[in-house]
Amino acid sequence: MSGNPKITAIKGMNDILPPESARWEWLESVVRRVMAAHAYRNLRTPIMEHTQLFTRGLGEVTDVVEKEMYSFQDRQDQHGNAEHLSLRPENTAGVVRAVAEHNLLYDGGKRLYYMGPMFRRERPQRGRYRQFHQIGAEALGFAGAEVDAELILLAVSLWRELGIQNWRLELNSLGQPEERREHRAALIAYFEAHADQLDEDARRRLHANPLRILDTKNPAMQALVEGAPKLMDYLGDASKAHFAAVQAILDANGVAWRVNPRLVRGLDYYNLTVFEFITDSLGAQGTICGGGRYDYLIEQIGGKAAPAVGWALGVERVLELLKEEGVTSPEPAPDAYAIIPDASALPRVMQALHALRAQGVAVQMHAGTGEGMGSMKSQFKRADGSGAAFALVFGPDELAAGEVTVKALRDGAGAQTRQPLANVAAWAGTLKSTA
Predict the structure, then answer these.
(1) Which of 17, 69, 272, 354 could pair with 293 as two cysteines, CB 3.0-4.6 Å apart?
(2) Is 348 assigned to a binding site?
(3) Which CATH code is given to the segment(s) 20-175+235-324?
(4) Long-range contacts of 68-77 (CB under 8 A, 24+ apart)
(5) What is the Rg, in whole angstroms, of the alpha carbon atoms belonging to the chain?
(6) How far apart are CA 12 and CA 14, in angstroms?
């Protein structure tokens, strides 16, 4: 026995093993279908970016930048220079960087989506890990409230396709920068007048990012925050009209919503519409999807000014919610299982299986243990356990006739036919799963 200690995964960074990985693949396939129906196209960005992208884009006085990013200084080049790099804690900034860098908006707006891992060094808990996964949708180059509503309706379509029912939608408007500046001054004055009630986080944020104080989870500060000046009272006519237009479209589509004046989101780049989809089934980690409009982010990271809006959902949280709601994904299974009584037949059998797979038939081949292929009884038992609809029996009689016996294992169990190996295409379609 080796004396070397076992190496395990990093805390909060999890292996996704079969059959759980099949649930991920199913979720991703549903997402691709819904995105295609809304004409959103896939974009893939690096998992590592320059740290400056996040400090400039997300805001330096945010929990993500201050406490949670995995950042480091790269090795020095031949000139003694070293770049400051970070694993991406979210992907909107990366999408915007890619859009600006490659001038994707030169011929008009773009609707994009992404899937992939993000990284934050926070305390692992249910549905929230240090390597976690997000799916996001971003519409860039569109200023109208109808695109805010389109993205919300896209998420609603996704919940419907997944079978998720326990959710609610909360909305708010953060207005425009000048409106927030006026509100900010009123917030600072209010909290300064109640400085003795502020906790350490609130005191630290008071002059740097007072809007984030409204999102505090400290029970001792809830009454104070409830009495704070409301941003909605500082919105101008254009901001109010934009927000009302979003609500009217949601109403027309039968989507229930409520305004939450304390909904500010955790990142600095938002303006106008912000929203969250929340469930009561996951305890404290109730937000499963959130986003909003971020019209100034592209210019903020050095691109040409353009409006944008988007959202991101947490894959782990959505999968947890699916479990809570009893939604099951299709169990992956091969269409057929190849039973091989004699190992000497393997070259011919594998030729036939290769031809079947080329016709789109998923076939699992029985594999020996080094001491032969095993009994027919044990092979049929494995065939049944695989979930396959058919067993393909490559016995000596069948092979001598240039045929294979196709035996039903599910519908019409026991029924069997002989099929010619010389013309797989003529009968392969009868094996294909209809799931």
Answers:
(1) 272
(2) no
(3) 3.30.930.10
(4) 68/120, 68/121, 68/122, 69/119, 69/120, 69/121, 70/119, 70/120, 70/121
(5) 28
(6) 6
- Known binding residue 253? Answer is no
Within 10 Å of residue 338's Cβ, how many Cβ atoms? 25
Opening angle at CA 212, ends 210 and 217, nearest 5: 125
Q: Would you put residue 327 in left (φ > 0), alpha (ψ -120 to 50) or beta?
A: beta
Determine which of 224-238, 249-263, 292-306, 371-385 has the lowest per-residue pLDDT on average. 371-385
How many residues are listed for the chain in this entry? 435
**Domain limits, CATH 3.30.930.10, in the chain:** 20-175+235-324
State the CATH architecture for 336-431.
3-Layer(aba) Sandwich (3.40)
Closest Cα to residue 207, out of 223, 217, 224, 195? 195
Check if the beta carbon of residue 95 is closer than 8 Å to that of residue 138. yes
Q: Which residues contact 48 (CB under 8 A, 6 or more apart)?
A: 85, 86, 87, 88
Q: Is 265 annotated as a binding residue?
A: yes
- Answer yes or no: is 111 a known binding residue: no
pLDDT for 343 equals 87
Distance CA(431)–CA(435), nearest Å, equals: 12
Q: Does the annotation place 260 within a ligand binding site?
A: no
Residue 120 in marked binding region? yes
Banded pLDDT at 59 (limits 50, 70, 90): low
66 annotated among ligand-binding-site residues: no
How far from chain centre, in Å, is Cα 114?
Answer: 8
Residue 97 annotated as lining a ligand binding site? no
Give the model's pLDDT for residue 126: 66
41 is in an annotated binding site: no
Strands (E), 19-78: 41-42, 48-50, 71-73
Residues of the chain with CATH 3.40.50.800: 336-431
The one-letter amino acid code at 41 reads R
Q: In the numeric block, which tokens belong to residue 293?
A: 């409009």
Per DSSP, what are the bridge partners of residue 324? none
Please report, for residues 14, 170, 190, 303, 324, the alpha-carbon distance to residue 158 in angstroms, rounded to integers and kept in the order given. 25, 17, 41, 31, 17
Q: What is the DSSP letter of 7?
A: P
Strand partners, 313: 135, 289
The percentage of residues in the chain with a pLDDT greater than 70, rounded to a whole number, is: 93
Q: For residue 84, give the H/E element and its range.
A: strand 84-87
> 210 burial class (0-12, 13-18, 19+ CB within 10 angstroms)?
buried
pLDDT tens-place string over residues 91-141: 999 999 999 999 999 999 999 999 999 999 877 776 678 999 999 999 999
In the chain, the amino acid numbered 298 is I
